[in-house]
Recover the amino acids of this structure.
């Protein structure tokens, strides 16, 4: 099932609710490829999306969200790391892309996807606490880790898995 939303925070929250409460298709997984730097989200719109995501958790619908493709800057040119929301939400699994180095059929290395001024988003949330699974990690204060909770190989021969362009996303059921 594919859902479309306008490029607004209110529309995103409404579309998440539409998918979560869709009694016909009953999706079990939502994949959202849209977001923007956390610093641009006002508390009210962020709370509306958080409420929709909390409903997803309550109804046992897993939500994955792209961490963006603007590196840890989030597209902001102030030199600081800026994580994307909603991928920074504790209710979702933030996903980024990686680049594989192959030798024959074997993977010999895997690195965070980065090409010039684009690549997997990153940063540490200024709104949400560090998750329990990172509580004891040595997080450098000036160089935050990649924001995504998970990363997947991307390919130069197809669109990036973590590309966040517009507000297209889909829901699946098993």
């Amino acid at each position: 099932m594919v859902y479309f939303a306008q490029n607004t925070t209110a529309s995103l929250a409404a579309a998440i609710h539409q998918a979560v409460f869709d009694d016909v298709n009953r999706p079990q997984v939502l994949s959202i490829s849209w977001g923007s730097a956390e610093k641009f989200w006002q508390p009210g719109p962020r709370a509306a999306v958080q409420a929709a995501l909390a409903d997803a958790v309550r109804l046992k619908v897993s939500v994955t969200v792209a961490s963006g493709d603007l590196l840890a800057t989030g597209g902001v040119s102030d030199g600081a790391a800026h994580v994307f929301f909603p991928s920074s939400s504790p209710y979702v699994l933030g996903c980024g892309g990686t680049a594989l180095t192959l030798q024959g059929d074997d993977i010999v290395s895997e690195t965070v996807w980065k090409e010039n001024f684009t690549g997997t988003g990153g940063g540490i949330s200024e709104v949400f606490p560090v998750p329990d699974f990172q509580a004891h990690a040595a997080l450098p204060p000036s160089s935050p880790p990649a924001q995504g909770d998970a990363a997947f190989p991307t390919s130069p021969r197809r669109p990036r898995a973590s590309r966040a362009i517009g507000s297209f996303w889909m829901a699946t059921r098993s």
